[in-house]
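Supplementary Methods S3. Input chains for the assembly prediction are listed below.
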Amino acid sequence: MKLYELTIHEVRELLAKKEISSEDLTKAVLERIDQVEEKIRAFLTIDREGALEKSRKIDEEADFSGALAGIPGAVKDNICTKNLKTTCASKILGNFIPPYDATVSKKLKADNAVILGKTNMDEFAMGSSTENSGFFITRNPWDLERVPGGSSGGSAAAVAAGECIFALGSDTGGSIRQPASYCGVVGLKPTYGRVSRYGLVAYASSLDQIGPITKDVTDCALVLNAISGWDECDSTSVNMPVPDYTESLVADVKGMKIGLPKEYLGEGIDREVREAVLAAARTFESLGAACEEISLPHTEYALWAYYIIAPAEASSNLARYDGIRYGVRAAGYGDLIDLYKKTRSEGFGPEVKRRIMLGTYALSSGYYDAYYLKAQKVRTLVKSDFDRAFEKYDVIISPTAPTAAFRIGEKTGDPLKMYMSDVCTIPVNMAGLPAISIPCGFSQGMPVGLQIIGKAFDEATIIRAAYTFEQATDYHRKKPVL
Amino acid sequence: MKITIETVEHVANLARLYLSEDEKAEMAQKLNSILDYMEKLNELDTSNVPPTAHIIPVKNVFREDVVRESLPREEALRNAPEKERGFFKVPRIIED
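Predicted structure tokens for the full assembly:
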């Protein structure tokens, strides 16, 4: 085993026993980046000097009390890192150096984690393939002709390729889980409010959450421990106790009631994906859980309500990019309005403009009730579906995405097709629930993800279910050959 | 056709975007095909359904109004595209 292939819990042992230093580990990962980054292109910024300096400092102080101490991780480029460029993969923020840390960045640093750099993504997290990056595309380590998923495609690809030990992503409609599924790694979207959004560049504020992308479920619990909790800087973060998620790493699902929604296994779901998920259900049953088919009748409406609500919130959130206080200002402007328009037209890519337009239209005078209010009412129905199901079931399982990773360029011409790749993950954000994606099989050589959805603030149970499945299978041990 | 070129121009102005003629045509076409799908939502009777804006019932969140450190001026201005004497610089908006 090479050092860069190890998990957090494996390197923690080596660090504790002083068999390796943080500098050894950081160097090993940077060397891996040197080997494969040219092919994958997962990173927008690599902070070699900063990472090495930090690792040496940690070795010198020999303080490995933090769960992530001395361990190199990557951060999605929409999460602010003080004095380290944060672009959201957008030209309009191409030169932005945050003067402050996001709360999660602060928490990683407090834990003595080593931040290697910032990962590529769809511009402003709008997309499902990382092809909407304003700078370059990222490739799937399992097949360089395929997308890594998105929008946290850089984070998922970097973890899968061994270019970091763990990563952070953000998830508005599936942006952690879908790329984790496509790249054969573990990704968790916490309950809305579990992790502070302070310093996360806002896309759709009522849906966005930051979460871990890791090599296995144990690592997921460790990173979730490090980033969770109330924050006075985010008024939507929730002030309730955070359990120690490593206590949920128990291989036991006896008596657990699992719902299998038929709407997630019907038309549009690839046959091999469906089979992998049904096989996972049988695995859970063989371990003592009870699986039953259920119905979440408003599932198909969730997607369309999302594509009103998310662009509406985005159109408002992205109004701040005006070329005045930060970011890139267009040259050769006339008056103030011309400055705004030139800056925004040159700075935003096509999908971002499309969503701003869609959202502005949906909120504009005369259309608000027909679109935005209607979508919010449908959101209530989507949430009620889950509320009813969770009266009877402990977790709900489904595919994370309808297919395995698609080919680069396959869906770029048709936004509707692209939107469909989030059909299994979007309802979860609409209801604010936690969900994890773990590897559960392969379709034509590409990884397939199993989504496990839990009750609000019950990350513990989905982690237990995921851990139990992982212990009974070895999909998470399969690595792409690069 | 819900969205005409004129609608696109109106919305682009609200969103402070310039679009070329080609972009306007493409935007109209793509937004129409997306909005066609949105029609699906009208299959649902939502007359008695309350809207959900936020999944957690958040009330106003207050804290004590205490003086504390804020971002120093130089730091706040560091990313400004243009600045002058400690201010963000913008084109003149008040006529003489």
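Chain B touches chain A through 49 residues (CB under 8 Å). Chain B has three helices and two strands.
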